[in-house]
Design goal:
4 helices, 17% strand
């Protein structure tokens, strides 16, 4: 206790009068800490759930064939590279001869007079339909656009490789995968 006339804080007079220096005040912070720890727990749980919800994930699909089986001879995987000068197309199948794989390669230059990105979509659909006639089990095409290719050109190329062109609505390669070149 302090002497009368002085405060416990070192002043001459008590802060709230002489009676204020008689009792001690203890703050009970336990209920406040309980509430804060509960709020903190729920905040951390909700942030963790939102991060998981934003992560892109691809799930494996069930395949009818065995996982280690080679692709059938009548199935090829086509790759269409989209460049500012046109399309570069190639196909792949491990069981085909080198001459057959080389026959799947072709290039289609962009059409003159159709603007900066006047691509030959109809010709691409026609050439892919001849490949589809020969390799009927084929259903996947991989698009490899370069960085400067506009989104509109990618979408039109997807439609052309699926068979949605001037020739009507064919079913050429319904599974379209967009990828990037490994540099």
């Amino acid at each position: 206790m302090a002497k009368s006339g002085t405060s416990v804080f070192g002043g001459r007079k008590p802060l709230f009068g002489a009676e204020s220096e008689i009792g001690q005040v203890d703050l009970n912070l336990t209920p406040l800490m309980d509430v804060m720890s509960n709020i903190l727990f729920f905040l951390m749980a909700s942030v963790g759930a939102s991060v998981v919800a934003l992560l892109p994930a691809s799930l494996p699909t069930r395949s009818d064939s065995a996982s280690g089986a080679e692709p059938p001879v009548d199935q090829v995987m086509m790759t269409v590279q989209i460049t500012p000068v046109g399309f570069k197309v190639s196909g792949a199948n491990e069981r085909l001869k080198a001459a057959d794989v080389a026959a799947l390669r072709f290039e289609l230059p962009k059409e003159a007079g159709k603007g900066e990105w006047g691509m030959p979509y109809d010709e691409l659909t026609t050439r892919l339909s001849t490949i589809k006639e020969k390799y009927k089990a084929s259903d996947t095409v991989i698009l490899l656009p370069e960085n400067q290719v506009p989104y509109e050109v990618i979408i039109k190329t997807m439609d052309a490789s699926r068979g949605k062109g001037k020739e009507g609505s064919l079913t050429l390669f319904p599974k379209v995968v967009i990828s990037d070149l490994v540099k």
